[in-house]
Backbone:
């Protein structure tokens, strides 16, 4: 019996060591992080940061979190999570508040403007007869960062939606950028400051500005059910392919601005009317930019801080 017991014990130890070694060890490379260079092992439930199955949860370590604990999370945007922008479009801010910002079709607005980077969106939409305003969706994002770098990602127009066709196009510093189709396909900028990684064969990516922000993004159409419920009156030759996004920030300045960026300010006061279930928040005049990669809105602060802007604060947005 003792021999059998020892054999089982050896098997259990071997299984434990095999499971442990299969779990990825993560760390934070940023000196400002409380987790700087600390080895953190991923949970058993999500042992890898980049699982081979695009529908599996990945391991994530928030470098701004004081707990330095790796957690499991989906790698595509969660439209009910903090920092998300989905639908027509509905945002959930850094304070957890839910609001709509409709903007204006065929115009550009700053979603986040920080001294270190800026994220703009292009809105598409339509206005059926008798409607006082446009129905709008986010069709493209533009990133401005570093001394002079720009990046854009756009959802291409589609008459009919086909989930097997890629509807994403990219550019880097004004030039077309090719990111091969395929889950985990990746592109990095020459200085490694920007990373684009596909989180599915087509139509979903994660975009990261090193040390500052991560954007999970996917392309979706306006469905027939959404059209029926909201009475959008979508035409037969356009399914209004648009973006669903979720932002996570590692560092933001106290001066951060933008449609959703302002909700991360420590002094943010929600302008929404009390008693309104999902308020519509304005600011078109403050946040409109002249292009997808311009930082010329009235409230924009990108590039305004100089070198001291790098002393922005970590953000624990878990």
Residues:
């Amino acid at each position: 019996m003792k021999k059998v017991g020892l054999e089982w014990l050896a098997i259990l130890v071997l299984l434990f060591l095999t499971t442990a070694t299969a779990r990825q060890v993560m760390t934070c490379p940023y000196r400002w992080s409380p987790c700087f260079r600390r080895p953190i092992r991923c949970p058993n439930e999500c042992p890898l940061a980049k699982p081979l199955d695009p529908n599996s949860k990945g391991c994530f370590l928030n470098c701004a979190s004081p707990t330095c604990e790796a957690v499991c999370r989906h790698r595509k945007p969660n439209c009910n999570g903090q920092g998300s922008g989905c639908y027509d479009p509905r945002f959930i801010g850094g304070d957890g508040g839910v609001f709509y910002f409709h903007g204006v079709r065929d115009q550009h607005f700053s979603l986040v403007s920080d001294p270190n980077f800026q994220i703009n969106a292009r809105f598409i939409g339509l206005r059926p007869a008798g409607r006082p305003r446009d129905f709008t969706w986010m069709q493209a994002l533009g990133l401005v960062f570093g001394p002079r770098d720009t990046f854009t990602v756009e959802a291409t127009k589609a008459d009919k939606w086909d989930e097997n066709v890629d509807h994403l196009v990219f550019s880097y510093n004004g030039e077309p950028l090719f990111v091969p189709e395929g889950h985990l396909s990746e592109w990095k900028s020459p200085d490694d400051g920007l990373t684009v990684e596909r989180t599915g064969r087509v139509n979903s990516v994660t975009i990261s500005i090193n040390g500052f922000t991560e954007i999970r993004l996917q392309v979706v159409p306006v469905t027939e059910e959404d059209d029926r419920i909201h009475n959008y009156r979508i035409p037969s030759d356009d399914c209004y392919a648009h973006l669903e996004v979720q932002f996570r920030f590692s560092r933001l300045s106290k001066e951060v601005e933008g449609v959703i960026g302002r909700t991360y300010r420590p002094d943010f006061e929600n302008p929404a009317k009390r008693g309104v279930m999902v308020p519509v928040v304005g600011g078109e005049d403050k946040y409109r930019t002249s292009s997808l990669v311009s930082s010329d809105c009235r409230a924009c602060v990108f590039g305004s801080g100089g070198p001291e802007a790098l002393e922005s604060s970590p953000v624990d947005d878990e």
